[in-house]
Design goal:
Blueprint (H helix, E strand, L loop, with lengths): L4 E2 L6 E2 L2 E2 L3 E13 L3 E13 H12 L4 H4 L3 H9 L4 E7 L6 H20 L4 H8 L13 E7 L3 E6 L2 E7 L1 H12 L6 H11 L6
Antiparallel strand pairs: 1-2, 3-4, 4-5, 5-6, 6-7, 7-8, 8-9
This protein binds lauric acid (DAO) (3 copies).
Length: about 200
């Protein structure tokens, strides 16, 4: 079996396989500018996708393409985000003073803006349901692991250190979360490139 992969800037380590069948496609770093002054490293992340789901949903369309045709292929990432492929974004917290309040407001900036972009303006209830998962009593110290998993049927399940904090069925929400990592303006473009490269061989039948 493959060894874990370390995100080089933070030293955070990610297992090569999650839940027996989800393969690590890329790792990256989420940074954030505070007070317009400096960037803080907030978390390292890993992008995982289920091997056999990738084959089932994407091989027919993309399996015959050459690696140069797959490189930079935005339609492929689009289809991956829209399809029912099981995926996980694993976050490993680097910033040691993260409060639930700042998680909520970062969420408003990042995920909510995508929800509006993809879903129009009718998403207040969905947003409300998702952010109500962020209870003030949760602690997310450095080293905490948050898994954002898209399960079959477009269910977004959130766990903190293996403990489920909520799950919501919404294709739009799943798509908006994935867009942060592999969409058109990703947090870490290098991670998106890695995903693209490591996805290519999985598309071959
Ligand atoms: O303490 O105000 C501050 C700066 C912290 C900003 C952190 C941004 C949070 C990013 C989302 C984390 C998701 C787990
Ligand atoms: O990095 O801006 C960002 C958004 C990351 C997605 C945030 C989801 C966090 C869910 C964790 C809830 C725990 C309180
Ligand atoms: O749940 O699979 C799905 C589809 C996602 C659509 C979500 C739209 C939510 C709109 C809520 C409206 C409340 C004013």
């Amino acid at each position: 079996s493959s060894p874990p992969v370390t995100e080089s800037r933070t030293g955070m380590s990610f297992p090569a396989v999650l839940r027996d069948s989800q393969r690590l496609l890329g790792v990256g770093l989420r940074r954030k500018a505070v007070l317009g002054l400096k960037n803080i490293d907030v978390y390292a992340f890993g992008v995982y996708a289920d091997d056999s789901d990738v084959k089932e949903f994407l091989s027919e369309k993309y399996g015959a393409l050459s690696s140069s045709e797959l490189k930079g292929n935005e339609e492929l990432k689009e289809d991956l985000m829209e399809s029912d492929v099981s995926m996980t974004i694993r976050l490993q917290i680097v910033y040691g003073r993260l409060s639930i309040k700042s998680v909520r407001s970062a969420f408003q900036e990042s995920v909510a803006s995508r929800l509006h972009k993809f879903g129009g303006s009718d998403n207040e209830e969905l947003l409300q349901r998702f952010t109500s998962q962020f209870k003030d009593e949760y602690k997310i110290p450095k080293g905490s692991i948050i898994d954002l998993s898209r399960e079959r049927g477009y269910v977004l399940r959130t766990t903190i250190d293996g403990k489920e904090v909520g799950s919501i069925q919404s294709k739009l929400l799943c798509r908006s979360v994935l867009d942060l990592y592999i969409g058109s303006e990703p947090f870490d473009p290098k991670a998106k490139e890695d995903v693209e490269q490591n996805l290519a061989p999985l598309l071959k039948k």
